[in-house]
Amino acid sequence: MTNVISDVFFDLDHTLWDFEKNSALAFAIIFEKHQINIDLDDFLMHYVPINLKYWEWYRHEKISQTELRYGRFKEAFDAVNYDIDVDQIKVLSEDYIYFLPKSNHLFEGTIELLEYLKPKYRLHIITNGFAEIQANKLNNSNIHHYFHTITDSEKAGVKKPNPQIFEYALQSANARKENSIMIGDCIDADVNGALDFGIDAILFNINKLATARNIKQINHLSELKNFL
C-alpha cells in the first residue's frame, strides 16, 4: 500500500458472512414450517438475482425497506408460478428475517483472516443491512469482538455508495481516509463508493467476474495477506 494503513473496513454480507448459504437455510426452515411445496433450488435460482436487484434499488433510494422485503418475495414466487397472497408473503418475510441471522456460516478463511489482521489494524464494518439483523449475524457467527465499530445504513441515514456513510464510518472510527481501506464484494457500493470518497478499496471477487484492470481484487479472503 502507498499509505500506512491503520483501519480496515469490511462489508459484511457476501464478504465475510456467507449470505447465500445462510439465506438458503432460512428458506428451508420457513418452507417446511409453512408447508410451501416448492423445489428450494428452483426457487433460489430465481430469488438470488431478484434479491440482488432489489438491494441495488434499495441502496440507490429507489424503494423502501418495506418494498424490498415484500417485492423480492412476490417476484420470486411469481417466477416459480406459486400462488400466494399478500398476507402470506408478509408472514414469510417476517419469518425469513427472524431465521436468517440465526445461521452462522462464514466464508472460508474469515476467522483466520480476522485473527491475522486484528493485532495489526483496527477493524470495522460498513453495511447497508438493517442494524438489529446485522448485529445478530455478527454475534451468532462469533465475530463481533473483532470489530471496533459497526456502521450500518440506519445509523448513518444513508447507504453505500453514498459518501456520507463513509464519512460517518470514519468519524465513528476516528480514522483518516489516507490510512483506511475498504473490502467488499460490490463494485458499486463498496469499491467505487469508497474510491470516489477517497478511501482505497479491494474487491472480494469470489465469483471471478470481469472487472476493470485497475481494481485491486481477491478471490479468496486469505489473499488479503498479500495487501495487508
List keywords for this structure.
6-stranded parallel β-sheet; HAD_sf; 2 domains; 47% helix; Pyrimidine_5'-ntase_YjjG; hydrolase; alpha/beta; DNA polymerase, domain 1; 228 residues; Putative hydrolase of the HAD superfamily; Rossmann fold
Explain how this protein is built.
This is Putative hydrolase of the HAD superfamily. It comes from Flavobacterium noncentrifugens. Keywords: Hydrolase. InterPro entries: HAD-like_sf, HAD-SF_hydro_IA, HAD-SF_hydro_IA_YjjG/PynA, HAD_sf, PGP-like_dom2, Pyrimidine_5'-ntase_YjjG. One of its GO terms (molecular function) is 5'-nucleotidase activity. The protein is α/β, with parallel strands linked by helices and 228 residues long. It folds into 2 domains: 7-17 and 106-226, 3-Layer(aba) Sandwich (Rossmann fold); 19-102, DNA polymerase, domain 1 (Orthogonal Bundle), CATH 1.10.150.240. The chain has 9 helices and 6 strands; from the N terminus they run βαααααβαβααβαββ. It has helices spanning 19-33, 40-59, 65-79, 86-99, 110-117, 131-140, 153-156, 163-173, 187-197, and strands at residues 7-10, 122-127, 149-152, 180-184, 200-204, 217-218. Strands 3-2-1-4-5-6 form a 6-stranded parallel beta sheet. β4, α9 and β5 form a beta-alpha-beta unit. The longest helix has 20 residues, at 40-59. The radius of gyration is 18 Å and the shape is globular. The N and C termini lie close together (8 Å). The mean pLDDT is 95.
